[in-house]
Batch of 2 targets.
Target 1
Amino acid sequence: MPEYPEMDRYRVLLSDALAGQKIVSAEVSREKSLNVPADEFIRRVQGRAIWFVERRGKHLLLHLDSGERLLAHLMLGGWMYFGSEEEKPDRTVQVRLGFEHGNLYFIGLRLGYLHLLSAREAEARLAELGPEPLDPKLTEERFAQRLLAKKRSALKSALVDQRVLAGIGNCYADEIAWQAEVLPGARIGALEPAALTRLYASMQAVLTEAKTLGGYMEHPFRAGDVTTGGYNSQCKVYDRAGEPCLRCGSAIVQEEQASRKVFFCPSCQKDH
Ligand SMILES: [Zn+2]
């Protein structure tokens, strides 16, 4: 599932491609991806310009000149592509937004969605999200406080809880834990202050690097896009079960934790 670095990449790419552009047509082949009937959706977005694109956690908000917002969440397997009908990947498209210079295709939306909301509705939907992990206002002290409010929780469960921090998911939670040398299953209450300090630093380092390298999305956003997905080969533990730990050489282990896949090194990551 795309996380903060991937969605931030989309924000930049969408801003470049769409800011100031008018939606000239819209097509919906999966009404379930919407929150309103398809004909109503089309009527309300057609002819509207996109003012700007904002990201909050794993959500994207496309601000329309009508004052309404398109709230997109890709969930598991969703992605976006911008281009002409000829360039379009050979995949089923759930929603297409047409612009004068190309189409924005929403692909792989199963649990993912594109909801048309008023400003107030959009705000309400995002109200419970925790702070952005790279927000300068999220100091080490505030970070530690937010985690410690979940004392009995396992580290990974707290890191992926969108009310604790907005934007971290399965992959980066494991990467952050590995970098900080803490087990994803460690109880928050058992962590020493030094471990919390390392977690804060590694969260910043991992997410900044992933953002700089274009995240891990496998699909380019448009023809000629070579910057998306640069982090895919940089993961140190995620999806590397059985491969040697890059720090100590032990085999990376994959387990299930609270019905989530979790990857870690059993030798150099600790539970305190
Ligand atoms: Zn190791």
Target 2
Amino acid sequence: MEPVIVVGGGLSGLSAAHSVLEHGGKVVLLDKKPALGGNSVKASSGINGAGTDTQARLNISDSSQSFYDDTTKSAGQLARSNLITALTSNSASAIEWLTKNFGVDLSLVSILGGHSVPRTHRGTGGAPGWAITSTLMKKLAVEEEGSDQRAKILKNSKVVKFLQTGNKVTGVEYEDGQGQTLKIQGPVVIATGGFGADFSSTGLIATHRPDLMQLPTVNGDHATGDGHVLVTSLSSDPGVLIDMDQVQVHPTGFIDPAQPDAKTKFLAAEALRGVGGLLLKKDGTRFVDEMEKRDIVTAKMWEVIQNGQGPVRLVLGLHAATELKTHCDFYVSKGLMKKFNNLQEVAEDIQIPLRDLQTTFTSHKSYASGQEKDPYGKTHFHNSDIHEEEPFLVALITPVVHYTMGGILVDEDAHVLDASGKPIPGLYASGEVIGGVHGKNRLGGSSLLEAVVFGRIAGKRAADYVTN
Ligand SMILES: Cc1cc2nc3c(=O)[nH]c(=O)nc-3n(C[C@H](O)[C@H](O)[C@H](O)COP(=O)(O)OP(=O)(O)OC[C@H]3O[C@@H](n4cnc5c(N)ncnc54)[C@H](O)[C@@H]3O)c2cc1C
């Protein structure tokens, strides 16, 4: 039996590989880097699921319809109902797959911007991306050692070409760590991730969003859109790229005071705002509903920065910092967040009068209690009971290239489609490399989900293709 070839060892490639094995196939997974994980191991806020056991236990009423509605609203005029249905209707089973089949802890749920209820799952340990992805990695390594030899992992192996017979994809050509060019035969799942680090002068950002070339990124250097280029370079009936100008700029990348101009930055997890972090201008006042969608928060930040009212600070009170203690301890240890013993110390650091900060926090508390209406329309408040004598955590933040919504045109079965809309035989794609799932704005927590949902679908379809 031919193996299914999975290109990319992030969460989507790993999900596809496990899905191939579950459906009786053999799999070879290649990654160009010396270690698997991609951007998936960096994910810091969590993975979405609607109608999960965890939500039921926490008395959160949710449904795939509500998740569909939120996603469609966020996707705007670029919403594609077939892809959104696939994402949202498979979300609870994706969470269940991770928790039951792999034992991943996803027992906590928080609300991120643009969601109508809490549905972003994470565990009690460290970053959710690492917790989920490393578990799937370890399990695949165990499968590789198994007696039936149905799984093989090739690291330092960069796929440079897809092989074709007619319009059918029949394998890949790859360069190994010794510089040799080798071939493997079999249907292919592309899971190479996005192009959020492709800043070369002829690259995908320069081509589709030249205005973002000067921005920093939170992507790993692998994210150069290899899959996008490979699929459009097919010699017969190539694949198609859609929505390539839709690049998500995340509002909160940390500015590291030790290297403020670094091109690659750490992400300040969206969950920091979810637990109650406030965004403040240089004068200590707020300027946006912190729980708004990323595109809106980013646009407001640009206004602030361009009007000379920056830098923008992210400020957490004691309860918010305690709720995300593991994250915050890590950021403080990296020098990305600074701890102050009280509000007075924060005011001294920013060099503004204490009373200005007092006004900001007292007003916010009064909006949270419903005594007054928030001028920015905020309705979800969390940990807003902040006392000025308690410790605060403060970080300088800036917008960063985060996620690329555009990518390969697929259908809801993860088939790669050609320009006439027909599936290219033997070719599937999943994860950030696919386009159109999130329209013009991805909701936080929906990319890990996309990686798992479409990875599982692609793995199943590719396994069926070999065995049928
Ligand atoms: C800092 C950060 C935080 C995030 N937080 C969240 C979050 O909390 N929740 C959420 O839902 N999303 C989050 N995201 C987005 C999410 O992590 C990614 O979109 C998702 O993990 C992408 O998964 P993937 O498997 O498609 O790609 P990746 O995980 O990027 O993996 C792609 C893999 O393909 C390999 N590869 C690339 N080209 C080739 C080639 N030619 N040959 C062989 N291998 C190749 C790469 O080396 C890499 O290992 C975050 C992203 C970042 C950067």
